[in-house]
Prior knowledge:
By secondary structure, this protein is an alpha/beta fold. It has one domain: Vaccinia Virus protein VP39 (Rossmann fold). The chain contains 6 helices and 9 strands. Helix 1 packs across helix 5 and helix 3 runs parallel beside helix 4.
Amino acid sequence: MDQATALAFLAASTEVQTHPFVPEVSLHLAHDAFGLWEELAEAMGRGELAPPFWASVWPGGLALARYLLDHPEMVLGRTVIDVATGSGVVAIAAALSGARSVSAYDTNDLAVCAAQVNGRLNRVRVAVSNTDVRAVSAPSGALVTAGDVFYDRSISSAMLEGLTALAEAGAEILIGDPYRSFLPQGRLEPLANFNVGVDMFLESDPVKATLVARLS
Length: 216
């Protein structure tokens, strides 16, 4: 999908909203993400498309964003890299909290577009590109964030591989996750727990206990 088409689709299918857990950040979000998924598949004429995770906010990302906004010392003056950025909520929170530079990555072209648009909406600079976590590099001392990335076995394996390589290169890795099945809890140092209100169309419970932790 070219950028002009992505921008037009984003404008037509979402509205600017804020989530009460992170009211500092405004985002282009869909009221019905599953309906949007069907609409997107029909518009593009393809039966199998990646879910529009970028059109919703998820508990892990919300928890990470809240943590960074509440602890700006974590990002102040640092290089921040947000992987699987989705809507860009964590990257935007990092920029609002005083990061020296913020880069965000996703493998979905519409997510890249959404994160770019949302960054401009919040008047922050976020460099966004389509890149797999295993191809991302980070300078030593960088902060790498990843929200809601351990929901599927194969994706979790790829994410853990990429995040481990970044940690070994000297980056600090922060994870936000509502204790999903493939979360590598044995490798995490808990930093905070939040009860995050979520959309019942997306999750099984209206409130999800959500962890923010450092990957060891």
